Amino acid sequence: MRIILLGPPGAGKGTQAVRLVERLGIPQLSTGDMLRAAVAAGTPVGVKAKAVMDRGELVSDDIVVGIIADRIEEADARKGFILDGFPRTVAQAEAFDAMLAEKGLKLDAVIEFKVNEHELVGRIVKRAEEAKARGEQVRKDDNPEVFKTRLDAYHSQTAPLSAYYEAKGMLKTVDGMRPIDEVTRAVREILER
């Protein structure tokens, strides 16, 4: 299964991705991790990415899609993968779709977590408090001001993906404000259809 999870920061994409990895036995792909691995491995795309990053610039969509193209060829991703945090823009989605088509592949599901954004701030504050109580490092983005900045970026860049995938008849939505196990059940039902 090739799956994209969409939704604003704090919507539960990461939590559900971990559960999907366990259930489906396919990897969750992080573009940041893939970029670092490609640079470290010195792959052709990694060399290009390193040159761009060394100049302090953002890596282009073509390079990111190239890194994903290489990564999905690895044995663990042949049965499928979960993307959360990519694509971030409609341009990335179009480039990603074109790359999949070149490989004769297609997405199986695009699942968006719908949430009440006012309640999300409370959710991330609670997540930070729970991490502190467990003696864990608090995520840098679990701060209301940082979170609001990320939410603004999500609205301007990533939210248009909903309409893009809806127009393709691929978008399925889940109420991300439900308890975690209920969200997991809803995701499972979508994937089993």
In order across it, which strands form the biggest sheet?
2-3-1-4-5
Q: Spans with pLDDT under 50 lasting ≥5 residues?
A: none
Task: Let me know the average pLDDT.
Answer: 90
Domain unit count? 1
Oligomer: single chain
Proportion of residues in β-strands: 5-15%
- Name the CATH architecture: 3-Layer(aba) Sandwich
CATH topology description: Rossmann fold
Distance between the termini: 12 Å
Helices and strands, with pairings:
Elements: E1 2-6, H1 13-24, E2 28-29, H2 31-41, H3 44-54, H4 61-71, E3 81-84, H5 90-102, E4 109-114, H6 117-133, H7 144-158, H8 160-167, E5 171-175, H9 180-192
Parallel strand pairs: 1-3, 1-4, 2-3, 4-5
Quick overview of this protein structure:
Pfam families: ADK. The protein has helices spanning 13-24, 31-41, 44-54, 61-71, 90-102, 117-133, 144-158, 160-167, 180-192; strands at residues 2-6, 28-29, 81-84, 109-114, 171-175.
Structural description of this entry:
Catalyzes the reversible transfer of the terminal phosphate group between ATP and AMP. Plays an important role in cellular energy homeostasis and in adenine nucleotide metabolism. Pathway: Purine metabolism; AMP biosynthesis via salvage pathway; AMP from ADP: step 1/1. 58% of the residues lie in helices and 11% in strands. It is an alpha/beta fold and 193 residues long. The chain has a single domain (2-26, 79-192), classed as 3-Layer(aba) Sandwich (Rossmann fold), CATH 3.40.50. The chain has a 5-stranded parallel sheet with strand order 2-3-1-4-5, with helices on both faces. The longest helix has 17 residues, at 117-133.
